[in-house]
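Reviewer comment 2.1 asked that we show a complete input and output for one of the modelled complexes. We chose the NAP case, as it is the one discussed in the main text.
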Amino acid sequence: MKKLKILITGYKGMLGTDLMASLAPSFNPIGLDLPEFNITQKDDTVKAITAIRPELVIHAAAYTDVDGCEKWPEKAFAVNTRGTANVIAACAELKIPLTYISTDFVFDGKKKSPYREYDPTNPIQVYGRSKLDGEFYVSRLLKKFFIIRTSWLFGKYGKCFPRTILDQAEKGEELRVVNDQTGSPTLTNDLCQSIIKIIKNGEYGIYHAANQDSASWFEFATAILKGAGKKNLIQPIGSKKLKRAAARPAYSVLENSVLENSLNFQMPNWQDALKRFLTNR
Ligand SMILES: NC(=O)c1ccc[n+]([C@@H]2O[C@H](COP(=O)([O-])OP(=O)(O)OC[C@H]3O[C@@H](n4cnc5c(N)ncnc54)[C@H](OP(=O)(O)O)[C@@H]3O)[C@@H](O)[C@H]2O)c1
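Response of the prediction step:
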C-alpha cells in the first residue's frame, strides 16, 4: 500500500528528528528545516512545501528559546505566528491537513487541576503568546487541522532537561533546581505515538498529548539522578532565584481528555517514559 507523504517542518529539532524516525515504518516522512528552509519567508515556504506535494504537514518548526522570545519578541512572532501563517498558506493551496505542535505555555498556570483542551488560554510570556497566535491562525484559516499541545519535552535527540541534569551530575556539580513549577514531562517518542494515533484517527480539532502524572522540575531532576544511579546533592530553589527573562506558568499539567475519551488512547506516565529514556540514551 502507498504510504501517506508527510512533510515535517523543523525535522532537525528534538521532536522533528524523532518524528522522522517514528513515522518511517507507516508513512513517507520528508523533512524541511533551516538553513535551506525558513518559514519566515512566505513565497519560499509555500514554494518549497507545494513542490514536495505532501498529503499532510506536521509543523514542528518554532523558535523555542523561551527566554530568547522574551528578549526578541519580533523574532518570536515572525517565526511562531507569521511563520505558521506561511505554512498554513501552503496547506490551503494544497488543500491538505496541518498538524500544529503547540504548548502548555498557552496557559497562565493559575489553575489547580490539569488543563483540558477547552480551558481558557492566557499566556504569560511572549513564547506562549506567539504560539497561541499561531493556533488562532490554524483554527481560523483552515478547516482540516490538528492542534496538539504538549509539554516539557525530553527525548533521544538534541538538548533536553534530563541530559543537562546528567551532564552536570557527571561533572560532580551540586544541583539547584526549581520546585515551584509543576508540569507533565513528556518523552518525544511517546508524543510521536500519540501524533500517529491522532492522524490515523482523522478527527480534526485540539488535543493535549503529554505523559501522564505531574512533577516539579526538582522532582523530575531527583528522579533522573536516582534512575541513573547518581548520588549528587540536589537542592530545591524558587524560580525567582534564577532571574530568567520570561515568566513560566506555576502549574501547566495537561490532561489528555480528548485522546483518552474519544480515541481511547492512554499515554504512559512520565516515570515509565524516563526509565525508557535512561535505558536507550
Ligand atoms: N521542547 C519543549 O519542551 C516543547 C514543549 C511544548 C511544545 N513544544 C513545541 O514542539 C515543537 C518542537 O519542539 P522542539 O523542542 O523539538 O524544538 P527544537 O528542538 O528547537 O526544534 C525546532 C526546529 O525548528 C527549526 N526552526 C527554527 N526557526 C525556524 C525557521 N524560521 N524556519 C524553519 N525552521 C526553523 C529549528 O532550527 P534551529 O535549531 O536551527 O533554530 C529546529 O530545527 C515546537 O513547535 C515547540 O513549540 C516544545
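The CA atoms of residues 39 and 83 lie 5 Å apart. We note this here for comparison with the apo prediction described in Section 3.2.
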